[in-house]
From TrEMBL:
<dbReference type="InterPro" id="IPR008513">
    <property type="entry name" value="tRNA(Met)_cyd_acetate_ligase"/>
</dbReference>
<keyword id="KW-0547">Nucleotide-binding</keyword>
<comment type="similarity">
    <text>Belongs to the TmcAL family.</text>
</comment>
<keyword id="KW-0819">tRNA processing</keyword>
<feature type="binding site">
    <location>
        <begin position="189"/>
        <end position="190"/>
    </location>
    <ligand>
        <name>ATP</name>
    </ligand>
</feature>
<keyword id="KW-0067">ATP-binding</keyword>
<dbReference type="Pfam" id="PF05636">
    <property type="entry name" value="HIGH_NTase1"/>
</dbReference>
<comment type="function">
    <text>Catalyzes the formation of N(4)-acetylcytidine (ac(4)C) at the wobble position of elongator tRNA(Met), using acetate and ATP as substrates. First activates an acetate ion to form acetyladenylate (Ac-AMP) and then transfers the acetyl group to tRNA to form ac(4)C34.</text>
</comment>
<keyword id="KW-0963">Cytoplasm</keyword>
<keyword id="KW-0436">Ligase</keyword>
<dbReference type="InterPro" id="IPR014729">
    <property type="entry name" value="Rossmann-like_a/b/a_fold"/>
</dbReference>
<keyword id="KW-0820">tRNA-binding</keyword>
<feature type="binding site">
    <location>
        <position position="164"/>
    </location>
    <ligand>
        <name>ATP</name>
    </ligand>
</feature>
<keyword id="KW-0694">RNA-binding</keyword>
<feature type="binding site">
    <location>
        <begin position="7"/>
        <end position="20"/>
    </location>
    <ligand>
        <name>ATP</name>
    </ligand>
</feature>
<protein>
    <recommendedName>
        <fullName>tRNA(Met) cytidine acetate ligase</fullName>
        <ecNumber>6.3.4.-</ecNumber>
    </recommendedName>
</protein>
<feature type="binding site">
    <location>
        <position position="101"/>
    </location>
    <ligand>
        <name>ATP</name>
    </ligand>
</feature>
Length: 402
């Protein structure tokens, strides 16, 4: 059985994701689609709008055969770390290809870009330092350095101002640098841009636009045309049980408490909290009545919204620098769900997997997996305190079977 891998968050699963899965399977001639999915906290430092179990069901009902969890260590990391964890897991579970969505839509410009930055690595790093010294953010410095190198390049390269192109490049970079056998392919992103609002004349919208509509309207009707029926029903199920969807505002009272219960020195122990910001975090937490107000006070040229969100994610979950960087490689494959086809794949190939397959977490002492369990517990606590109702946690929940 030939397997193609996809790296996903499904926050929530929408029609664009359905297109991506179906095209990935068709173009790779795969028998099985394996999704490595972030758990409860995501790459931009956000809590997922619904829990990982609902999102796993969405994936399995719409073309994925296996869903495995991207550990918290990687799912909340910058693009390089996120990509390394995801691609290593897809390699470990036996995928021959990985398919990512991109604005570029063809693979050769990605390979040309990798070659350009590899050949001119010293010059590229020197340019990054120059731009950082001007006071602009690190992501902006990366982009400006790349554009300067790109000016003299003859072959076609990608636009690294586009978010899906950026992640796609990092997937390829991870696979090449780690000498993995898994081969890349890309699926053109269609209709909706990454940050665009929903367009009622289309059936495709970005997850960002869908989330914005949900939170602004407090109703699912406006997004019904943009998600598969199964996803809509699972979103409705969540709303019926817990009244509202999860965002940082949901957790704000508890995040505020987590910040203010620590001294400035203690805050610097948490992952991604850089020296100097700890005083500003405390000052802003004391003054702010909402998460948005808190973030608006902190955001600057040096500290982007995403970078700040990653900091506060680790403060909220209580995860330190030492814990987050304990290992640079995944140490297990955590199974969240499977179809009958996925189960057949596991039965045939699991002895060949490069990492142990974990379906239940009751007897684990793996430090990386313990962080996942803690993240789930803190997500569940926030939902429970906000809604008065409990959600499934790791110790109680076996893999979903469809």
């Amino acid at each position: 059985m030939n397997a193609v891998g996809v790296v996903v968050e499904y926050n929530p699963f929408h029609n664009g994701h359905f297109y991506h899965i179906s095209q990935s399977k068709e173009k790779s001639n795969a028998d099985v689609v394996i999704a490595v999915m972030s758990g409860h906290f995501l790459q931009r430092g956000e809590p997922a709008v619904i829990d990982k179990w609902h999102r796993t069901k969405m994936a399995l009902q719409n073309g994925a055969d296996l869903v495995i969890e991207l550990p918290y260590v990687f799912s909340t990391g910058h693009a390089t770390l996120f990509s390394e964890g995801a691609i290593q897991l897809l390699e470990a579970i036996g995928c021959t290809n990985f398919a990512f969505g991109s604005e570029e839509g063809t693979i050769h410009p990605f390979l040309n870009t990798y070659k350009l930055l590899k050949v001119h690595e010293e010059q590229y790093n020197a340019l990054i330092k120059q731009y950082v010294a001007t006071g602009i953010s690190y992501p902006q410095s990366l982009y400006k350095a790349y554009e300067e190198l790109r000016e003299t390049e003859q072959s076609q390269t990608i636009d690294l101002s586009k978010p899906n192109n950026i992640l796609g490049y990092h997937y390829i970079e991870a696979a090449k640098r780690l000498n993995l056998r898994i081969e890349p392919m890309t699926i053109p992103r269609i209709q909706a841009g990454f940050h665009e609002d929903i367009n009622t004349e289309s059936t495709i919208a970005s997850a960002t636009g869908i989330r914005k509509a949900i939170f602004e309207q407090q109703s699912l009707e406006k997004i019904k045309q943009f998600v598969p029926e199964e996803s809509f029903m699972l979103l409705a199920d969540w709303q019926q049980q817990y009244s509202s969807f999860v965002q940082w505002e949901t957790f704000w009272p508890y995040l505020r408490f987590a910040i203010l219960r620590n001294t400035a020195e203690q805050l610097t122990r948490f992952a991604d909290v850089s020296e100097g910001i700890e005083f500003a975090l405390i000052k802003a937490a004391k003054k702010s009545n909402s998460f948005n107000e808190f973030m608006t006070q902190l955001k600057s040229k040096r500290y982007t919204w995403t970078r700040l969100q990653r900091m506060v994610t680790h403060i909220y979950t209580g995860i330190t620098k030492e814990q987050l960087h304990y290992s640079a490689k995944p140490s297990y494959i955590r199974l969240l769900g499977m179809t009958k086809n996925g189960q057949a794949y596991l039965s045939q190939y699991k002895k060949q997997f490069q990492l142990p397959l974990i379906s239940r977490v009751a007897s684990t002492n793996d430090p990386m997996l313990l962080l996942d369990i803690r993240a789930t517990d803190m997500y569940a606590l926030g939902v429970e305190l906000a809604s008065g109702k409990k959600i499934a946690v790791d110790y109680q929940t076996p893999p979903i079977r469809l």
